[in-house]
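Quick one - inputs below.
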Amino acid sequence: DAGVIQSPRHEVTEMGQEVTLRCKPISGHDYLFWYRQTMMRGLELLIYFNNNVPIDDSGMPEDRFSAKMPNASFSTLKIQPSEPRDSAVYFCASSLIDSRNEQFFGPGTRLTVL
Amino acid sequence: KNEVEQSPQNLTAQEGEFITINCSYSVGISALHWLQQHPGGGIVSLFMLSSGKKKHGRLIATINIQEKHSSLHITASHPRDSAVYICAVSRLDTDKLIFGTGTRLQVFP
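Output:
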């Protein structure tokens, strides 16, 4: 298996633009997690899905952030409109069961909002 | 106070030294994870444990549930061990991982 795939790897955009990050989990994994990593706050969970259903989105910063998982092999995280404070590395991870099991992380998307 | 605390924040060592990184947590957990993040940014899961001790190569992880404390040990450290090591816990009441702030390790030849 190729592991968790994320695209793009780097994104530079201007404030106010829409940003879409993509993730393909490992085949057969039931759980998908979106994380954000910043120097100030470290790693934070934004949202996670179980069998394509959003279970907990309490970590999503505000209404500008939305995430979908239309099928078992694809998820998106969208920011609209983007702001400079959204600049961070966004990781997607998947696991067979839940957070009590090993999570496999994607390479991350480094987002810079100018 | 953070629910997961790591120490030290930064650590430098000479090649060959024995290294210990500590993690304390204040919530009930179902599992504790040790993650490694290399300078390139990728994150790899090293261990997941809920009791006792696990060993993989030169890495050893221990956990004391009663004391709410875990340690990650690296024996015979090597410059390629240079990375950020992150402790994370799975809370008993949710499926979410709560992360420590990480320990930056540099091993010099």
